[in-house]
Amino acid sequence: MTDPETRDRLIAAARQAARHAHAPYSRFAVGAAALLTDGTIVMGANVENASYGLSLCAETVAIATASAAGRLADIVAIGVVGGMMDAGSAAQGTDPVRPCGRCRQVLNEAAQLGGRDLDVWCGGITGDRIEAHRLSALLPHSFGPADLGL
């Protein structure tokens, strides 16, 4: 697992990203921060759409940002936080938020391309309770590039 200092940097970056969530329908802000092999952190926030199926999860936005920089295979860890937004659009919540199934699959693609398991740190928008997971535990028996012979 990544060290506590790196975990704290990831959670802080994810909380910063969550402030930019566009979540007018669910009112649930999510932020994600992906750590790359050189220590760079790329962030993402959820972006909802009136056509709900077109909404983007924060983790997917962070992964796409890394990919756009040519760094998809360089992801080693991700921090994810979330919480309900109040009337002033500030998010609150101390319960850890975990990636949805779709995001676990998107993360798995990056993990397999990089030849590694990912550390997944999950927290709330506020509070000190942080969960540590390995992607392989969150998505056992995964399907990825190797299953296609790639």
Descriptive overview:
- The chain is an alpha+beta fold.
- It has one domain (4-139): Cytidine Deaminase, domain 2 (3-Layer(aba) Sandwich).
- The chain has 4 helices and 6 strands.
- The chain has helices spanning 4-18, 58-68, 101-114, 135-138, and strands spanning 28-36, 41-45, 75-85, 91-92, 119-124, 130-134.
- Strands 1, 2, 3, 4, 5 and 6 form a 6-stranded mixed sheet that branches.
- It starts with a helix and ends in a 12-residue tail after the last helix.
Which terms summarize this structure?
alpha+beta; six-stranded mixed β-sheet; 150 residues; 29% helix; Cytidine Deaminase, domain 2
In short:
The chain is of the alpha+beta class. The chain has helices spanning 4-18, 58-68, 101-114, 135-138; strands at 28-36, 41-45, 75-85, 91-92, 119-124, 130-134.
